[in-house]
Amino acid sequence: MSASNSRTSAALLLLGLLAGSSIAVSPAHAQAVPFTLPFFAMPNYELGTTSPFEGSYARVSTGFQATSMKGFGSFSGPTFGLEAGKMWRNGQFVYGFVGAIDYMPAINGYPTANFGSAFYSRDFAGAAQFKAGILATPNVLVYTKLGVSALNETFHYGATNFTAPFDKKAFNVRPDARVGAEWAVTDKLTIGVEAGVVGPAMR
Length: 203
Known about the structure:
- There is one protein chain.
- By secondary structure, this protein is an all-beta fold.
- Helices cover 0% and strands 61% of the residues.
- It has an 8-stranded antiparallel beta barrel.
């Protein structure tokens, strides 16, 4: 099995600009449960004059990521990280550069791969990307990203008739392309969903 297979991933993110608790809300319940935003998340911009998606920003992020890799099955779990960038707006078109780091903890550790099988995991990851999109509404951005991701990856191999089980760790830089949508609940609180494809490790 090759460690350079491309993989696809999807993530649901809840992003908060200021420090404080951010709790993901299931989309199935988001309309059924009324809530009041905390004081730090109340907006201070006017829709139509200033976009929450323009300018410089830095924020804390938390969410859930699911990854599927050919030959290594699926891997999913919560993520915690930081994101920063600079965005410009020209009418409804928004573009700029973003960078992010995140951590995907191993919940209860990793099991030994089954006989003749393998699975994938990662912990730390970083990304540098060009981001561009269209404002579907003043506070909803539909976008695409192109860039590279750096990942601290582990490939877990099960025993075979000739080898004992073993893990292969690697720090890889991979090209990636993503599409997503963000809803700026306020200028300090954003909910988004993103999917993408990550290519083979760059040599």
